[in-house]
Amino acid sequence: MSATAQIGVTGLAVMGRNLARNFARNGYTVAVHNRTAAKTDALVEEFGDEGTFVAAHTPEEFVAALERPRRLVVMVKAGEPTDAVIQEFAALLDDGDVIIDGGNAHFEDTRRREKDLRERGIHFVGAGISGGEEGALNGPSIMPGGSAESYESLGPMLQKIAAKAQDGAPCTTHIGPDGAGHFVKMVHNGIEYADMQLIAEAYDLLRTVAGYSPAKISETFRGWNTGRLDSYLIEITAEVLSHTDAATGKPFVDIVQDRAEQKGTGRWTVQIALDLGVPVSGIAEAVFARSVSGHAALRDASRHLAGPAVRELDGDEAAAFADQVEQALYASKIVAYTQGFHEIAAGSEQYDWNIDLGKVAAIWRGGCIIRAAFLDRITSAYEAQPDMPSLLSDKSFAQEIAAAQDDWRAVIATAVTQGVPTPAFAATLAYYDSLRAERLPAALTQGQRDYFGAHTYHRTDREGTFHTLWGGDGSEVES
């Protein structure tokens, strides 16, 4: 088989198939391969008119079809299946060739694989790809990590197939070395969890407290989507809420079991944040909310627990409350993004990745699930202040949240008094209040730690590390 393909894709489930079609539609000759040869042949037969495909039925044929340096995209299940495919193809590659993992791999796995293949002369790129099936076909947001040399070879191709922001910029950039791309994709998904949970809480409040029907809430969300909350998730929420189940005639949202599943990236975001010591409380509560929803036996056993009587609003009162919910949703979303960017900055420092936060925000403006209008402003904020410790340090965002805070607090107070769970709303507000507090009660916590474990403390009035002799005369010693 002659080497005619500029890129190859192995693993032709929906994401891999659509990514291969995207490359072909953009003028590249694409080698395609799957362990089940029938999938390879089916792709070429069904979509062969979209571009030029080279069907390969063995790993050897697949590698032989690729031009040097060979660029090979792996789209298989994360974990051991990815390792197996990488090892199989690495044995057939030469120095300078590039393997790209486009799955949702854990970034530590990517770091391990990159080191192993680098020692064998092969480049390894962990590329986070966001946008789902539609994005893979029509233009995703792509977050590649790996060597700068590998991006020189691969980058122009990714820029061509990636989504384009409104200003025409491709939604991809070289994130940084080894696992940086998959780390950023992980945090992207954590923010996605928080965003979805906040939207769900807004829906619950509008339905339970304001008494709005799903159709009315859909209309409300469509209105919000024309303003500062303009985003993909708000857009599709309006679509979901307006949908009627054909079998029952009921609102679609009422016939779906209230158990949200998860694939793990949100959980990873929280686990790694704990390792890094980064507070991502809004993201964490979104992950835990999905966990609570899945514990059916726990919830069934708790139906007898008492709660307050819910007073449904009406008329102008309900409309005013809806306006307050919009303020709370916007403020909470900004905090969730703030927490995510803080984690990326901490990961970048920990692993010496030198990630440009402004560029990350820029490539999330199109293609990805959390694309939103305010990402333009986040990009500008980080371009103006690259070392900004927090997105809330930006004056414009800080002023907006200050203006929203009274309504934000009122919404959470209403939720508490009416017994409507809003864990993500409450956690993001608590985070905001923690940042603006002149002094936190952590001083007492540290005093307790010194009492029971002699863990020492620092004083506010002088330098040094101290311990109080609690069981003795109460005097203080310097450690």
Structural class: alpha/beta
Strand content: 5-15%
Number of helices: 20
Q: How many strands, which pairing sense, and closed or not: the largest β-sheet?
A: 7 strands, mixed
Q: Any idea what the shape is?
A: globular
Distance between the termini: 72 Å
Q: In sequence order, what are the helices and strands, one letter per element?
A: EHEHEHEHEHEHEHHHHHHHHHHHHHHEE
What strand line-up does the widest sheet have?
3-2-1-4-5-6-7
Q: What does this molecule look like?
A:
The protein has 479 residues and is α/β, with parallel strands linked by helices. It is built from 20 helices and 9 strands. The protein starts with 6 loop residues before the first strand and ends with a strand.
